[in-house]
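The freezer alarm interrupted the setup, so I double-checked each line after restarting. Inputs confirmed:
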Amino acid sequence: MAQQVRGVIARAKGEPVRIETITVPDPGPGEAVVKVQACGVCHTDLHYREGGINDDFPFLLGHEAAGVVESVGEGVTEVAPGDFVILNWRAVCGQCRACKRGRPQYCFATHNAKQKMTLADGTELAPALGIGAFAEKTLVAAGQCTKVDPAASPAAAGLLGCGVMAGLGAAINTGGVGRGDSVAVIGCGGVGNAAVVGARLAGAAKIIAVDIDDSKLETARGLGATDTVNSRSGDPVEAIRELTGGFGADVVIEAVGRPETYEQAFYARDLAGTVVLVGVPTPEMRIDLPLLDVFGRGGALKSSWYGDCLPSRDFPMLIDLYRQGRLDLDAFVTETIALDEVEKAFERMHHGDVLRSVVVF
Ligand code: APR
Ligand code: ZN
Ligand code: ZN
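Predicted 3D structure, all chains:
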């Protein structure tokens, strides 16, 4: 039986979101219905409602979530009703050229549920990142459910579903930070601070946090940054060089998504160092760098989608580290809110007051 639940809907570009009744079908083959327990508010949700992703309104927002599998459709073997899961937007296909080369984290054909959730009048909804978890229940592909230790707090665990995983993975997976490395992180919001934590987990000896907001830098210090730089009070490239014996950092992670901070990252790394772009730029942004510097400085310029994570590999492992007290996911939950407070959370996010607001059901 299809079920009626409440969900946060963006009806039109720029319009405030509102709660509406949605219909969640029973899971078909390869699908699962998940009772959502917590869902973080991410920039991408705001981008959807501002029309920055595409025009497929109405959207069912929310995609950074954890919950319990309620029912599964035919042929589902990877999860069962009652499993505690983190939802992911990288359900890998196993068939594409990336998967076949043994690099499923780059899967080019990830999948979502085939059936549509709808508004009460039958209008089909477009779920954010194929998830749509600002809803009491949501329909996803079973591969989007990653089973983890049920002792984890849903609010903290759900954050691995997007932003925190992006930051952790930018350091650990994409940047390949190793023991003894020097790392600089430019932009210390939820994503950048997760990169700080990732760098620490990976054994970095020096972790330089860079932001324009002292309160973000203070948080970064609490999470493991060894040095902080406020780029309002001087050239951050010079500051990073000074802190690294005049050379620059081995890995610089850009977690803002702007040309000027990318350029800082480019010049703040040591020769043969690595730049990781995890901040998401907008379509009109351009960079202009001397090609000779790109060549002459060597190293690697990489971008990091979803922290190059493989959910089935990374989520259970990171939740285990969290449970052992080695990964402080709770630090990213600035506030827990109710489902009808998402619009307010967008405002707080816009003002930079929070690492994450998390809707708890
Ligand atoms: N230099 C340094 N830091 C900056 C600058 C700058 N010029 N401009 C902004 N910042 C800082 C902000 O002060 C803030 O702490 O960057 C941080 C951005 O953090 P959030 O707005 O909380 O965003 P977050 O969720 O961390 O995402 C960062 O990654 O996933 C993408 O779309 C997301 O592009 C965004 C980026
Ligand atoms: Zn694939
Ligand atoms: Zn997100």
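Quick read of the result. The radius of gyration is 20 Å.
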